[in-house]
Amino acid sequence: MREYAGGSVRAMRGKWQCVVRYRDGGGGEWVTVTHMTDVPVGQRGGRTRAEAELRRWRDSLLVESAVEEVSARYEAKIAQIEQGQSGRAATAALHETFEEYARSYVCDRRLGRPTGRPLEASSRRGYLTILDNQLLPYLPQGVRIDEVSTDMVEGLLYELQETGRYSLSTTRKAYNLLRSILTQACERDGLTRNPCDGVRAPGRPKPRLNSLPVAEADKLVSTLARMRPTRAVTTAQLALACGMRVGEVAALTMRDCDPSRNIIDVRGSIGRSNGVTERGRSYLKAPKTDAARRQIPMNDELKEIVGRRRRLVRDLLDERGLDWSDGLYLVGDLEGHWTTPDNLGKGWSSVSRSLGLVGLAGRSVGLHDLRHTFATYALARGANAKDVQAILGHSSAQMAMDVYASSDPSERAGMMRAVSHR
């Protein structure tokens, strides 16, 4: 890819001219290109306008260069496929059965494709479950990795959906794992073509949110404020007030949410283990993405929620003659252990049923539904999608707009009344 210098502006025949130098990525001679603006040299603020145009022009050159490079790579890849060549010598791994190759792919030390980080044990076990239940039963027994065909991939997807045993989401996960395995076979072991190329994965199901209607959110806030700040109630309040995930609340220490600091420091999460030998266990894990590790500003509502819980814990410690520690978990026990997300969820389920809470999807409202309620409420009240994204810990604001915006029927009805011509 071309390397571009910063650029400059200069006076040329009474107007400002933009000047940029570039050279090929491998080095070589610098080439100078120019762009004449319409900005007069003597005009007040003209240089500033010219420099702004310089930046826009230079950015367009960078985009053009990137597009050219991507296009060249794409054409080279197409030519490679047409010639039946992967560009790599085939390795002995291609003679393994698909099952052998896939298990090695999942179990060997490797990095997750979306994150570039080591796979968590729970993710590895999840992949093995998909391999055993949704891939191997629908591929020919003993088929070699280099014998998997496009017809086999299409047949697998057809069978998964035709049987009706698996949801669209499960089918997509199976397809994504299959494609990822075959992609490695192409990139590392010389498979000439990925059989998944040209096969469309089932469409992503549109999420059905079970958040509370916006009109009900304020009522629940008032109700919870009058209740004793138990672990489940405090977790629900935080999910409703700032959209925290239940695992994130479980991992909060007193130090992470000291009201005097005016922030909630989200630094980790309590994960659930789905392993056969570790069923019921949990572990402290780092955030999956950089966006998930975040600091949430504490408003008066959050300070009151955290303050009430901290006061209750202090009282309980005093009753038992135990010392306070900033390392105690906010919704953990008095001995310094966290409470698992499953136990917090069970505790909240009892509260939710006793309050008769029902979400938009007609189900009892869970803790994660309160996170959705926060996002829906914030957007309905005019919050910026980028701010909602940051508070929720999403990597993109688009998800906030796609999933949460206008998800409340009563809000949509209000909008239609507002734009009515009668």
Topology at a glance:
Elements: E1 3-4, E2 8-12, E3 15-23, E4 31-40, H1 46-82, H2 98-107, H3 121-135, H4 150-162, H5 168-189, H6 214-225, H7 231-242, H8 246-250, E5 263-266, E6 269-272, E7 282-285, E8 294-297, H9 300-320, H10 341-355, H11 367-380, H12 385-392, H13 397-404, H14 409-418
Antiparallel strand pairs: 1-3, 2-3, 3-4, 5-8, 6-7
CATH class of the largest domain: Mainly Alpha
Secondary-structure element string:
EEEEHHHHHHHHEEEEHHHHHH
Give the CATH topology of the largest domain: hpI Integrase, Chain A
Q: Provide the number of structural domains.
A: 3
What does this structure look like?
This protein is an alpha+beta fold and 422 residues long. The protein is 48% helix and 10% strand. It folds into 3 domains: 3-82; 92-189, DNA polymerase, domain 1 (Orthogonal Bundle), CATH 1.10.150; 214-418, hpI Integrase, Chain A, CATH 1.10.443.10. It has helices at residues 46-82, 98-107, 121-135, 150-162, 168-189, 214-225, 231-242, 246-250, 300-320, 341-355, 367-380, 385-392, 397-404, 409-418; strands at 3-4, 8-12, 15-23, 31-40, 263-266, 269-272, 282-285, 294-297. Strands 1, 2, 3 and 4 form a 4-stranded antiparallel β-sheet that branches. Helix 6 (214-225) packs antiparallel against helix 7, helix 7 (231-242) packs antiparallel against helix 9 and helix 12 crosses helix 13. The radius of gyration is 28 Å and the shape is globular. It starts with a strand and ends with a helix.
